[in-house]
Amino acid sequence: MHNFTPLASLAGGVLIGISASILLLMNGRIAGISGIVGGMLKPASMDWGWRLYFVGGLIVAGLIGRIVSPGAFAIAIPRSLPMFLLAGVLVGFGTRLGGGCTSGHGVCGLSRGSIPSLAATMAFTLAGVITVYVVNHLLGGSF
Amino acid sequence: MQKLFASIAGLIFGAGLIIGGMTQPAKVIGFLDFAGKWDASLAFVMGGAVAVSAIAYQFISKRTAPVLAPEFAIPQARAVDRRLLAGAVLFGIGWGLGGFCPGPAVTSVLSGHLAAPVFVVGMLAGMAVYALLVEHAGAVASDCGAVLSTQDVDA
């Protein structure tokens, strides 16, 4: 198995769970990143202050992480920048259409026992597995 | 106060993503690569996050309101319809292609690698296209014929 990190990953997951619990308990909000970011694009939305602060927290965590452990941001996959742009477009549109991403459906939805979130999580994981199979094993791995 | 706790939650969330390995696209691809050298690590991220959130939810859901807001903004249950599944599939294709989902991409945006901000620009464009095409049309009919408000697509 390549670079298997069960303890660090479990610890990271626990932190994500604590964060989602704090946001729900204090602010009554779901820690779904696509929903939080997508909500900032609605001009009529009156509640984008907290969204900005949450996203700011993520970016500051990234800056601290960059100093403490630069290797934690290694890209290490052979993709061109236009391919990252296309991937971003698909993720942005898809998460809004499907109503959530890995955090909103995967973490928050599953922890509430939501059946639609379970269906979405299975669908996006399966689509990801098939995409990686096609890219890495049928098309040679680089794009 | 809500902004303070949103900042704290964002910081902890970002730290969790970094420590868990989610900000490394190669590791995400490794998790999705069942036919290659499968890296199960991300299942531990998901497992840890869901376990903690599920336990906390048992307590939080007994409250009538959150500490700092008048009510909980929890998405209403929506149907498992074609929109939900099509959106999830498009997201999964992008996830498998770029190795980023929204949280790790935003966390990595100033990490010094150009791939992350490029991905985030694409993501914001995709979200903006959705907002223009779908949300600005007002309430949209779901596949079941029921009318979903734009509120309940915000998981």
Report on the architecture of this protein:
The complex is a heterodimer of chains A (about 140) and B (about 160). The radius of gyration of chain A is 17 Å and the shape is globular. Chain A is about 70% helix and about 0% strand. Chain A has helices spanning about 5-25, 35-40, 50-70, 80-100, 100-110, 115-140. Chain A has a domain at about 80-145. Chain B has about 160 residues and is mainly α. Chain B has 2 domains: about 1-60; about 80-155, no CATH class. Chain B is about 55% helix and about 5% strand. Chain B has helices at about 1-20, 25-30, 40-60, 80-100, 100-105, 115-135, and strands spanning about 140, 145-150. The interface between A and B is large, with 119 and 124 residues.
Total number of helical segments of chain A? 6
Q: How much is the average pLDDT of chain B?
A: 88
For the biggest sheet of chain B, the summary is: 2 strands, antiparallel
* Secondary-structure-derived class of chain B: mainly alpha
- Work out the radius of gyration of chain A: 17 Å
Provide a quick synopsis of the model.
With 143 residues, chain A is an all-alpha fold.
